């Protein structure tokens, strides 16, 4: 099973920036723990502050990955191009946000991505990524059971 985590702008600063919102742990440290817990999964991680690189990664992985976990950061609220990229690929995408975007500034309440994703997880900190991964694992098991 192949799952790709894609993080957008400023998420490279997790553990350093706005710790009261995003926590004290770096994503790299969290990702190492997530990989250790799920050794039988091909789990990869990509981060970019550049919108076009995120789109390119979606295009690159979006026809072979069993699932994509996407935290597009601020692009969530601005990028029709990312929404179009999600629509163009066949891999299911789960939208994840570390903070509760609905408890923050009003401009963060709208996502151009949500309607193109299989679901949205927000406000649960880094554990949102684990929950998204669990969703894809459970979906795989359910799909296997239906085929049997």
SSE blueprint and pairings:
Elements: E1 2-7, H1 19-22, H2 27-37, E2 42-47, H3 51-61, E3 67-71, H4 80-88, E4 93-97, E5 119-122, H5 127-147
Parallel strand pairs: 1-2, 1-3, 3-4, 4-5
Helix pairs in contact: 3-4
Number of strands: 5
Residue share in helix? 25-40%
Question: Can you tell me the CATH architecture?
Answer: 3-Layer(aba) Sandwich
What's the CATH superfamily, by name?
Dehydroquinase, class II
CATH fold naming: Rossmann fold
Shape: globular
Helix-strand string? EHHEHEHEEH
Highest-level CATH class? Alpha Beta
User: Structural class of the helix and strand makeup?
Assistant: alpha/beta
The averaged pLDDT comes out at: 94
Contiguous low-pLDDT stretches (5 residues minimum) are: none
Round the Cα radius of gyration to an integer and report it: 15 Å
Number of separate domains: 1
Strand order of the largest sheet: 2-1-3-4-5
N- and C-termini, Cα separation: 18 Å
Strand content: 15-25%
Number of helical runs?
A: 5
Most strands sheet:
5 strands, parallel
Active site: 22, 97
Family: Belongs to the type-II 3-dehydroquinase family.
Keywords: Amino-acid biosynthesis, Aromatic amino acid biosynthesis, Lyase
GO molecular function: 3-dehydroquinate dehydratase activity
